[in-house]
Amino acid sequence: MNRVPLVAPKAMSKAPEGEGCPRCGGFVYAAEQMLARGRAFHKSCFKCADCNKGLDSILCCEGPDKDIYCKVCYGKRFGPKGYGYGQGGGTLQSDCTPNHDAAPKTTVIDTAKIKAAPGSGCPRCGGVVFAAEEVLAKGRPWHRKCFKCHDCNKTLDSINACDGPDRDVFCKTCYGKKWGPHGYGFACGSGFLQTDGLTEDEISQSRPFYNPDTTSIKAPEGQGCPRCGGMVFAAEQQLAKGTMWHKKCFNCAECHRPLDSVLACDGPDREVHCKACYGKLFGPKGFGFGHTPTLVCADGQAPALQTSRPNSGAKAAPGMGCKRCGYAVYAAEQMISKNGVWHKRCFSCCDCSRSLDSTNLNDAPNGEIYCRGCYAKHFGPKGVGFGMGAGTLTMA
């Protein structure tokens, strides 16, 4: 079996000084290029300078000596040293070190001792406030440890801090006790209400209560409530026809039923009424509306139905009125066909008087309107097969 002879390595061509690989000095081509510190390394040379561990763009750490290291070797060579880092001075011991030296103590600097200029430091201690411990309230910087309630020393934040009128800060509870309302119901001032041994009437008599009657506050002429003339404030405002009413005055002028925007009807007398009273005062009247006596049959026979037609007075101008009766047609009862306008009661078939609508209407060439059956009789096709004219086909 023939073996393929190994290719002998060729001598690497060196690049000019400062242009090749920093590790070996040879030319670096694009296919094997690794970049660090703005210089190109061979992929095979891109290793830690101490432990020769292969590196990549994540593990590589560029040292101040212009060489590259892995993270562990970089920390050993250039990282922080001393207690707590496991390098240099050894790790922290739970007991005294072999040379009987105690672990070093942490030094805490109290910035409150560094006094600031009057009016520019912390309002509580007067010390300089640095950005790392700054808390703002009313545009003034406080130390975080000084940002406490003035009365109970509760630690505050931006949610529960309350700025008092004395330029100090309080928690919500202390702020309420010091600056909030006092008296009955607020657990301050006059003490709690007691109910032991007292009836409801006695409690009501001893409880201070004031119900302001805004109707006694008269408004300028034409600007107050239309019912009482008093000033109308936003909390009790009701609107009708662009006029403001007191909520307690917004009731029916006849039956005094309380109203709202659904039940209220604006009358022509500039008053408001419920729907029932509005119908009695301003609604239509006559038979069928419950105001004049209804028809009564004394002999047991039903009265003849009378259809009201505008058969009195002057008729409309020619071509302007109803096509059937000639009287004026108003919008509430108007029906329209191809030949003109009609009363709703006149909008019926010319032959059979059947009531018509837009679905069964047929305009005839004679200017009248018909139902479909009557239109077919007068103007439809005739002859054998249509049941008109020559008669239908018969079987002998």
Give your account of this protein's structure.
- It is a single chain.
- This protein has 396 residues and is mostly beta strands.
- Among the domains are: 30-78, Ribbon (Cysteine Rich Protein); 111-179, Cysteine Rich Protein, CATH 2.10.110; 217-282, Cysteine Rich Protein; 331-379, Cysteine Rich Protein (Ribbon).
- The protein contains 5 helices and 16 strands.
- The protein starts with 32 loop residues before the first strand and ends in a 17-residue tail after the last helix.
CATH architecture of the domain at 111-179: Ribbon
> Sheet with the most strands?
2 strands, antiparallel
- What's the N-to-C terminus distance? 117 Å
Structural class: mainly beta
Helix fraction, binned, reads: under 10%
Overall geometry comes to flat
User: Which strand order spans the largest sheet, edge to edge or round the barrel?
Assistant: 1-2
What is the fold-level CATH name, i.e. the topology of the domain at 111-179?
Cysteine Rich Protein
Question: How large a portion of the residues is in β-strands, by DSSP E?
Answer: 5-15%
The strand count comes to: 16
Taking pLDDT < 50 over at least 5 consecutive residues as the criterion, the unreliable ranges are: 4-10, 87-101, 188-196, 291-297, 302-308, 389-396
On the 0 to 100 scale, the average pLDDT is: 76
The CATH superfamily label of the domain at 111-179 reads: Cysteine Rich Protein
The helix/strand series, from N terminus to C terminus, equals EEEEHEEEEHHEEEEHEEEEH
